[in-house]
Amino acid sequence: MARKPNCEELLESEGMLAEFFKHSMVGLAIFDQRLYYEMVNPYLAASNGTTIESHIGKHVHEILGVVAFQVEAAIRQVFASGQPVLNCDIAGPLPTKPGGGHWIDSFFPIVDSTGKVHRVGAVVVELEKKRLPEPVRENISSLNDVLRSWKDIARYMGTCVKTVQRWEGSYGLPVRRVQPGKGSVVLAFRHEIDQWLLKRTHDLNTMERRSPSWRD
Question: What's the predicted TM-score (pTM) here?
């Protein structure tokens, strides 16, 4: 039978975890089940263009803006499956970094004594594109901006393929076709999706202010 750690050992472990968060040279965060930040380290706070204090107790959408749609999908997948989601290619503008950024994120389940996932931890590495020659940076930005299938578009927006197809037909989601007609290869640009999301959110908020019962 496994020995339970005593209070002194638990306090020592918590102290080691705090030091690890403080000095790690990659971004680290812990999210609760509501997708609020519980912990974040200095590296990630700086990468997001703000402070540790501004993260704690804030929802992921409050910090990451439209980029949060990509992060939220991965976190929810971990909560649902209990399995890590590794090496997510995350890119786009943040409220505090309008010029945008590019990160590789991995998400891991944190389980309680019953084995249930009750937190999700994130490891984030920001890609330093500024060190690359200008033509290479431009090529990388262009390649990262393209979503090459319905599946990629749905994953980027944190929803399913049927939903993004419906949004294209009903709400003008900016999707392009290589050739006209049903079944054609589709593609979309991240920056156009981000702009559509911002406009859609603004329009919905405006409708709600004008008529609080418009959803009924």
Answer: 0.56
